[in-house]
Amino acid sequence: MDRSTYSRSRRMAPIVAVAAAAALTLAGCSSSSGGKKSTEDSSGASAGKASTPRMTVALVTHQAPGDTFWDIVRKGAQAAAAKDNIKLVYSADPNAGNQSNLVQNAIDQKVDGIAVTLAKPDALKDVIAKAKTANIPVVGLNSGLSDWKKLGLLEFFGQDETVAGEALGKRLNSEGAKKAVCVIQEQGNIGLTQRCAGVKKTFTGTTEVLNVNGTDMPSVKSTITAKLTQDKAIDYVVTLGAPFAMTAVQSLADAGSKAKVATFDLNSTLTGAIKKGTVQFAVDQQPYLQGYLAVDSLWLYKNNGNYSGGGEQPVLTGPAFVDKTNVDAVAKYAANGTR
């Protein structure tokens, strides 16, 4: 997994797809959300299944209990595992120390590869080094774009959260917004912090950050409601996840606010809200694709020696805006759990 062993002559422009287009139609199993867990996933899909030896891959994320965003990531990972004859072991915990322990568990189980999120990269640095010593390839997804190379990961699949935030800030300018509140549901999560910082960088109006407890949705609702009640000048609430956008819509009603809601990330409920106009737009990072490519990349590396981006560049899966102009085209995929 040590990129120093890779041939430097193979450096090239990022490869933004991993020969997976046809396989993306494979359906993965449904999954449940939750914190601290470890389960083996399997899928009934068999068409086009690889005949290569059975592999075991651990997918370890910082999913918080009830955060359905990760169901989409996991579904993509399951589809790749079904195609590649992989036993997928999923585990998650929002506590960085516990997540590190889950990675250690995967090392102890002598898995063939690890896919991990780096919401709090410093807490995972040592255990990733242990995986490297054990010759277990590790790829990153979703969180950690600014840290994956220095931690020695093979590849990374996700979006540049700062760039995504900057794009949303520019969009607020075009919408004529003057004052926005950016709602962070998990303090210390570097990706969420980067999103709000990106918004503040390009938005010409005023940006305030509001920290909430994302694991307690009634508290999220009351905190946003109190902020909107106290400051009537807020004309946009920016949330960093689809469930929080829907809660913000409720807070607007409770506070009697005329503000609008925009969000990062997407799900089937959110597409319906965009159609109705209760949410103006979403920034989609394609979590299904992140899960799919992360797992598939480990199969490609083990069996073919392939890796994307020459070991130097990330594979970007976003950002892309979804609004009333294109939501109908996206909604059918969101309903299937693939967007």
TrEMBL record:
The keyword Secreted does not apply. Residues 29-52 are annotated as: Disordered. It is found in: Cell envelope. This is Sugar ABC transporter substrate-binding protein. Belongs to the bacterial solute-binding protein 2 family. Residues 58-301 form the Periplasmic binding protein domain. Keywords: Signal. Residues 29-44 have a biased composition (Low complexity). Pfam families: Peripla_BP_4. The lineage of its organism: Bacteria, Bacillati, Actinomycetota, Actinomycetes, Kitasatosporales. Its main location: other. The keyword Transferase does not apply. SUPFAM superfamilies: Periplasmic binding protein-like I. Residues 1-27 form the signal peptide. It comes from the Bacteria. Coiled coil: none annotated.
